[in-house]
Structures are given as structure tokens and as C-alpha cells.
Amino acid sequence: MFSPLAEAMPFYDRSIDVVIATHPDADHIGGLPEVLRRYDVDTFLDPGVSSDTGTYQALVQSIGLAGVERVVARRGMTINLGGGATLEILFPDRDMEGADTNDASIVAKLVYGDTSFLFTGDSPEKIERYLAAIDGKNLDVDVLKAGHHGSKTSTSDTFLGFTSPQIAVLSVGSDNRYGHPHKEVLDRLLDFDIKILRTDEEGTIVMESDGENIFVND
């Protein structure tokens, strides 16, 4: 995690506004202690779900040592990122302690001008359907970070219908043992005529917005 971050940010920029730990699974938090050690982080956002793994305990210790403000994400929160950019928390909307960690994933919508991005962590289809039922109109975005690395348990037809993104980003490791992304998800995205960007093919994906257009950096 640290190396791609260092490549994306200028060497002299050591500050990060918000770090989001979508949920406490190791593949989502394993690199965060190093980020907290090397950067000045203003706010650390997590769903308020704990874990007994060594990876999670190391993260908790790093948060304390860094003296970072830790905020439990809840629906209705809006974080002002400056310059007109905002991050709206869509889920969780309740205490998820004891729930499956994927179910507890933070779902957040980043808005800048007329452009918008939706980040879903490992949220499964049942959470997608829940969000569509309670707030479907607010799910429409330009870019969707597809759920659970392109697993067939996420990125349902219903969710794609409500989000209607132009681009879907799949964060997935090369030759991973889970077979991600699953063919079913790729087929769904193609059926909706959504451009697919995969980290196993593209490497680190960096996007920039001027408030009207979204640019994908090589």
C-alpha cells in the first residue's frame, strides 16, 4: 500500500485528510499502520467493528501512537475535504459490532462539483439492495469502486441500475486464489456498458476531477 501511495503523492506532501478503513479484514487494513507512521493523517474513519486478529490490534496501536482523530462512520456524516469536495457516509447506519465484517463495510460517496465516486468496501448484495431501497436516488455516480474485488457476491444488477456509473474500478490482485474478478461481475458490467478498470491489469489507478470531467492517469 505504501509504495503506490508514495508514487501517487508528491514526495514533499506528507499529509492525508482522511484514511478510511472500510472494515477490519487484513487485506483492507494491513498496510495502514505504515501509512500512519509515515504521513500526518487528520482523520481515521472506520465502521466501529473490532477484530481479534493481530493485524487489527497492530492498527489500533498505530492509531494511538499517531495521535490521529478516530471517527466511527455513520450514515448522515459528511466530511468536508476542502475546495468544494465532500465525502458522504451512506453506510453503516447502525452499530455493526458482531456482524459479518463485509456487511459492516463503509460505503461512502465522494462528490466534487458535478463528478461523483462511490466506494463500497466488501459490501455484499444484501447491503447494496438495502441502500437502493432507502436511498436509491443518491446512489447515481460517475465512478463505482466495485464491491469485494469483483466477487459475484457484490455489484448486483440492481445496484448497477441505481448507480449507473460510467466507470467501474476493480481492486484485485493478479492470479489471486479467489478467482476475482468473477466472470459474472464482468458480464454484468459489460451488459450495462460500463468501462472496466482493473488493478491487476492497469496497476495503481489514479483519477483526478476538475469538477466537470474525470481524468484517469496512466
TrEMBL record:
InterPro entries: ComA-like_MBL, Competence_DNA_uptake, Metallo-B-lactamas, RibonucZ/Hydroxyglut_hydro. Residues 14-173 form the Metallo-beta-lactamase domain. SUPFAM superfamilies: Metallo-hydrolase/oxidoreductase (SSF56281). CDD domains: ComA-like_MBL-fold. PANTHER family: BETA-LACTAMASE DOMAIN PROTEIN, DNA INTERNALIZATION/COMPETENCE PROTEIN COMEC/REC2. This is Metallo-beta-lactamase domain-containing protein.
